[in-house]
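Hi everyone,

Forwarding the result from last night's run.
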Amino acid sequence: MTKEILVTYASRRGSTQEIAQAIAETLESFGHSVDLESMKDKPNPADYDAVVLGSAVRVGRWVSLGRSYVAKHEAILKTMS
């Protein structure tokens, strides 16, 4: 069964974006339909069956864009298994 998956990331210098791209490509190789989007483009997780989140880490914490994206979409993300 094909699912629509969002792979979204918050990247400061591009490394997290590269990792997200590799994850998206791997999921596609298993037959999934995947959208790769930066969190700064504000993709709506409610439009997807599953979401993969990734963020750059600064001083042991996700960067502010990653934290704010998760906080904004917390309710819908909690409904996904």
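The chain has a mean pLDDT of 94.

Cheers,
N.
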